[in-house]
Specification:
The chain has seven helices and 23 strands. By secondary structure, it is an alpha+beta fold. It folds into three domains: 40-129, no CATH class; 139-288, Sandwich (Jelly Rolls); 291-444, Sandwich (Jelly Rolls), CATH 2.60.120.230. The strands form six sheets. A five-stranded mixed β-sheet has the order 1-11-4-8-12, with no helix packed on it. A five-stranded antiparallel β-sheet has the order 6-3-9-5-7. A five-stranded antiparallel β-sheet has the order 18-17-20-15-23, with no helix packed on it. The two termini are 38 Å apart. Residues 1-33 and 439-446 have low confidence and may be disordered.
Amino acid sequence: MSAGRVRSSASLAMLLGLAVGWGWAQEDVAPPVGDEVPTFCRDIAPIIFANCTSCHRSGEIGPFPMTTYAEVKRKAKMIAEVTGTRRMPPWKAEPGFGDFADARRLDDPQIALLKRWVAGGAPEGDVATLPPLPVFPQGWQLGTPDLILTMPEAYQLPAEGRDVYRCFVLPTSLPEDSYVKAVEFHPGTRSIVHHAIFYLDTSGRARQLDEQDPGPGYTHFGGPGFVPSGGLGGWAPGARPRPLPDGVARPLRQGTDVVIQIHYHLSGKPESDRSSIGLYLTKERPKRIMLPFVVGSHAIDIAPGEHDYVIRQQAELPADATVVGLTPHAHLLAREMKADAILPDGSVQHLIWIKDWDFNWQEQYRYQTPLHLPAHTRIEMEYHYDNSSDNDRNPNVPPKRVTFGEQTTDEMSILFVNIIPDRFLDIPKFLRAMASSRRSVAVPAP
């Protein structure tokens, strides 16, 4: 296989098997009656505690705590501004285009309530109405894992510089083949771990990359630098470990290495991290297997200055299947992405719409209720890119021609749809369908 084909396969295989949803629960907050000024204790704290405190507390990745009235009041104007523009909480999926579990999205009344509170002087109110601070679980939330893998040594990060994407190779040393029912990740230093993705490697290639790079692990942006043999999902702050549905598991072959790719966000002071991952196993052959149905295109060639470059692609489900969730993926030039399911009768099931893609806030979207789709349903995706100077996320100044690739300044167009085929025997059909879906159309806007 040529080097180009290896890179292409690695790109299409990256993020393989991602199916972990994350987020915080939201609570409905009744607005004050009439012109009454909202208070923190009665009206604002329920919103903050349900949507912000999970990350904005001691030891977490939020840059400041939001656990008390004094802490929130100091940032009140900024909170009203970033929630009003929906930069926070970080949730990119548009409402009405997929009903996702753990959606971190404030509704319009909640945003209006925050603005009214700030405009009214941000009063504290009666402390007797203050709800209790959330209690966040400690230790292994799903019980003691069957297998705990920990980075062999701590990785040291400097105080300042660019974000780091580092891969760590963790041998499983299993004596026989097994199946994974659930995965739970424990970041060693939560304040610097932005997110993590879990790959499987049976080739030994990850070990070679580790040996060639000084220090623990190896640096690689985008994919892990090899063709994964599978994946175990991922993690981000606020993630809740979830077992796979009954009768569903992921295969884990004997001798497999787990490769954890961690995105580190530097904190302004020297830090170290030694993270762990727990695997919950079963030796029983599952009744069904979850696999990523990949829709994507390598036909990316964006001229400098192009404001709206469009990639459209589709793939047809060859048999009945249930969609558990999906993971869109692109790099820094992407601005908008949309995916729909076109059923055989012509009806449309909206899967997801992201109007403001941000590489720093990638999600693994898991549906509140999995979607069952019949055979011959078409999965259609449409990604938009901006390679002009107007895109403040453009890594090239001035803009340069950008094509498909794994580097920071390259681009991608991939949609991982996590599916469970109704029948075991249909799995080869899905693999063949993905292989034949490479035909794509790159359409620059007129």
